[in-house]
Description:
Elements: E1 8-16, H1 19-27, H2 29-32, E2 40-43, E3 50-54, H3 57-65, E4 75-83, E5 87-94, H4 98-102, E6 106-114, E7 119-127, H5 132-138, H6 150-164
Antiparallel strand pairs: 1-7, 2-3, 3-4, 4-5, 5-6, 6-7
Pfam families: AHSA1
Domain Activator of Hsp90 ATPase homologue 1/2-like C-terminal: 16-162
Family: Belongs to the AHA1 family.
Amino acid sequence: MTTTNEAVQMYRVYIKATPEAIWDAITKPEWTERYGYTGLVDYDLRPGGEYKVRPTKEFREASEANGYSCPDILIDGEVLEADPPRRLVTTFRMLMDPTMAAEGFTRITHEIKEGENGVCSLTLTHELEGAPTLAAMVAGAGEDQGAGGGHAWVLSELKTLLETGKSFNN
C-alpha cells in the first residue's frame, strides 16, 4: 500500500434517516457489525472515555484465512467530545498493522446535521498528521488489494444500511 501526505480528509454523505438513527449506527455494535469492516464498537461516551473496535468472528476468520493475524482490538482511542446525536470526536489508532499502529493516534470528528425532508448530512473529518500509511488506507488506496474502500466505502454502506435495511453483502 502506498502512503499519502494528505493531513486532513473530509467525507460527507446525505442520509434519509434521523440524527438519532445515524448516531446509533456509528456508536452501537449491533449496527457497526453490519456495515463497513464489520467491527464491534465500544464507546464510553464521555470525555476521556475509551473507544475500541473489536473484530467480529467473521472478520477474524477472513483475516486469518488470508494469512493475517487479527488482534483482539482492531482500533483504539479516546472519546474527546460526545454531543449525541450531533457530534462525536475521538482519537483513532489502527492496531491491525504495525506500521499504522506506530504512526500513533489521529483524530476523527463525526458531525450530524439535520436537514429538510428527513435527510441529514453526516460529515467525517479525519486529521491524519504524521500518519501517511493510515491516510492512504482510509482514503481507499488498498481497495485494489482487497482492503476495502476506506471511509468513502464505509459511509456509503452506512447510508445504504440505514435507508434500505441491507448492507452491500445482503
